[in-house]
Amino acid sequence: MSSLALIQGHICPGEWFGYKVNNEFKIEKVKGIITEENENVCILNCGCGGKVLGVSNLLELGTEIFILEKNDTKILETLYKQEANLAEEEEFTMENFFEENKVDPSKKLNVIIKSSSEGSLEAIKKSVLKIEEDGYSVNILIDGVGNISMSDVERAMISKAIILGFEVGIEAGVEDLAKKNKVLVRTYDIIYKLIDEISEAVTMMSLPESTEEEIGSATIKTIFVLTNGTKVLGSRVNEGIMKRDSKIDIVRKDEIVAEGKIKSLRINKDIVNEVKSGSDCGIQLEKDVDVKEGDEVHCYKTVRQ
């Protein structure tokens, strides 16, 4: 018998219970379900806790399990691989870029622009060179027609530039190299979105002083501990939004008991950038902090003045 908290979908007797123990994949049939109130039920829904009958191994706290329709180890292996890949998908944002790179004394935002045609390239260059805010502007290091290449990333690493792509692809290996070296690569299919984002970036550069503004709050309903020791805070957003890469305070009985930063957000299995009021989500912080069920998570954004 094994206790669990279901964070997605449902489970019924007769379905297959898949998990990993001692680096081996195990699949066993669910023989019965007992709720936290010690009632036998024929279905356990998302958000509920209970005990599953039919599991022969003693599972560690935080062990991730999957419910399968059939006894198929290959499916279970694929699900674990997909989960591992999702955990690695951490987008490098504009905020991250400015945290990693100090504002250039020349007041220039270096960019590399790649586009699908000469016509669109010229239109983009003309627009970004018009962007100016309190003496801060854009410097185009390289521009050209074609996909974003490894050499573009290498040049961006040296010059602390942002790579902008319009209706172009990304060559093999580029994303891994950019992620490893914290190079910001942005692609677009609408020109005005590219212009708007670069305009916002220049504005951010021109406003060095900043304050924090609360943008949302959530209540921690349950805490999951994964096999690697990472805590996932199962939470309900009460007001505003929770946003990835944002600073947070953990509040208990109107007192701040811990501070941190949101590393990732999930709605079910999907990694998302933000979660709105009224939604449930899983919050993972960059470092382990003291949290308890019932604590509030207050989320902040940096406002440059």
Which properties best describe this structure?
305 residues, five-stranded mixed beta sheet, Elongation Factor Tu (Ef-tu), domain 3, Rossmann fold, 3 domains, alpha+beta, six-stranded antiparallel β-barrel
Number of helices: 6
Cα separation of the termini? 57 Å
**Beta-strand level of the residues, as a percent range?**
35-45%
Gross geometry: elongated
Integer-rounded radius of gyration = 24 Å
What structural class results from the helix and strand content? alpha+beta
CATH architecture heading of the largest domain:
3-Layer(aba) Sandwich
CATH-assigned homologous superfamily of the largest domain: Translation initiation factor IF- 2, domain 3
Provide the spatial order of strands within the biggest beta sheet: 15-16-21-18-17-22
Tell me the domain tally. Answer: 3
* Number of DSSP-assigned strands: 22
Record the SSE blueprint:
Blueprint: E1 2-5, E2 10-11, E3 16-21, E4 24-29, E5 32-35, E6 40-41, E7 44-45, E8 49-53, E9 66-68, H1 73-88, H2 94-100, E10 108-115, H3 118-128, E11 132-133, E12 136-145, H4 150-159, E13 162-166, H5 174-180, E14 185-188, H6 191-206, E15 210-225, E16 231-243, E17 247-252, E18 255-267, E19 270-272, E20 274-276, E21 280-285, E22 296-304
Parallel strand pairs: 10-12, 10-13, 13-14
Antiparallel strand pairs: 1-8, 2-7, 3-4, 3-9, 5-6, 5-8, 11-12, 15-16, 15-22, 16-20, 16-21, 17-18, 17-22, 18-19, 18-21
Helix pairs in contact: 3-6
Structure characterization notes:
The protein is an alpha+beta fold and 305 residues long. The chain folds into three domains: 2-88, Translation factors (Elongation Factor Tu (Ef-tu), domain 3, Beta Barrel); 94-206, Rossmann fold; 211-304, Elongation Factor Tu (Ef-tu), domain 3. The protein is built from six helices and 22 strands. The protein has helices at 73-88, 94-100, 118-128, 150-159, 174-180, 191-206, and strands at 2-5, 10-11, 16-21, 24-29, 32-35, 40-41, 44-45, 49-53, 66-68, 108-115, 132-133, 136-145, 162-166, 185-188, 210-225, 231-243, 247-252, 255-267, 270-272, 274-276, 280-285, 296-304. The protein has a six-stranded antiparallel beta barrel with strand order 15-16-21-18-17-22. A five-stranded mixed β-sheet has the order 11-12-10-13-14, with helices on both faces. Helix 5 (174-180) links the parallel strand 13 and strand 14. The protein is elongated. It starts with a strand and ends with a strand.
